[in-house]
Write a structure and sequence with these properties.
Length: about 300
């Protein structure tokens, strides 16, 4: 029974990574036609509808009162993270954007040391070194045009800043988490992300071409469905196993990039991505050791 549960958990986890990677590909496609703020707003607006229906039909729990400030804070951070990432992904190859985004766990380890007083240790510093080297290789070669068409400086800055914003969001969620169903929490975070992304989205609004409406609907649906898959997977398997599966996002990014955008990852991007993945594995190993040693 345990084996079957874990197998189903792995299936849900793979589906989550594939679906959420599809969100990135759709964001890149839509980002060519509208601002990243508008893409963020539309993505969260449609996701809110699907998550609200899911909560009403399956979860049947109203959000607990007294946590609106926490929901609002997570919402504004999520909106900022998505806007930065969508801006970066619109101007760079999918694999490059995902590789840079994978530095988020390293930022989380360092921020955890600052916020929670955790001692980083040599493994964390080693992971930081590998992540910096990997990011440096990717940015230097693509930014200069040595490995394919050059990427704009603004897109690179957005791609580097997005994982930092994500790490801040994760730390806030850990420090001020509400005791509620995870999908209900996601619904509230999505609602506030929609609210906070609306002003800039409306200010820079470009009426989407009718031919893009299916992509707008799909990006919101995949965003909601991917999180449902993620919750289902984590309920059936250890989080450490999901962390390993999550690295397959680079494979999915390469697949979507090749199929839909004719992108072929350059070798510096692959080498840099491999160094970043090694950094995440090293950092995760250190985190597990700290948990196991804790009395």
């Amino acid at each position: 029974m345990i084996s079957l549960t874990r197998t189903s958990g792995v299936s849900f986890a793979v589906a989550a990574v594939a679906t959420l990677s599809g969100v990135d590909a759709l964001a890149k496609s839509l980002g060519a036609e509208m601002s990243s703020f508008q893409v963020t707003f539309l993505r969260y607006t449609v996701s809110t509808v699907f998550l609200a229906l899911f909560v009403a039909v399956f979860v049947r729990r109203r959000p607990k009162p007294g946590f609106m400030k926490e929901h609002a804070l997570k919402g504004v951070l999520s909106a900022a993270t998505a806007s930065l990432f969508f801006y970066g992904i619109a101007g760079m190859p999918l694999v490059m954007a995902l590789a840079l985004a994978m530095t988020a766990p390293i930022y989380m380890a360092l921020l955890g040391a600052l916020v929670f007083g955790e001692r980083p240790g040599r493994a964390t510093y080693g992971a930081l070194f590998l992540a910096v080297c990997g990011s440096g290789i990717i940015v230097a070669t693509r930014g200069s045009g040595l490995a394919g068409p050059p990427v704009s400086v603004i897109a690179i800055i957005a791609g580097l800043t997005a994982p930092l914003a994500y790490a801040v969001t994760a730390i806030v969620m850990k420090k001020a988490s509400a005791n509620d169903h995870p999908i209900t929490l996601s619904l509230m975070q999505t609602v506030f992300a929609t609210v906070f992304s609306a002003p800039l989205a409306l200010l820079l609004w470009q009426t989407p071409d009718p031919g893009l409406f299916w992509q707008v609907g799909l990006i919101g649906f995949c965003g909601a469905l991917g999180f449902v898959f993620l919750v289902a997977g984590l309920n059936r398997m250890p989080a450490s196993l999901y962390a390993v599966i999550d690295y397959s996002a680079l494979v999915w990014a390469g697949f979507y990039g090749f199929v839909f955008f004719d992108e072929i990852p350059a070798w510096p991007t692959l080498v840099g991505g491999a160094l970043i993945v090694m950094a995440c594995v090293l950092s995760a190993g250190r985190s597990r050791a700290m948990i196991e040693d804790r009395p």
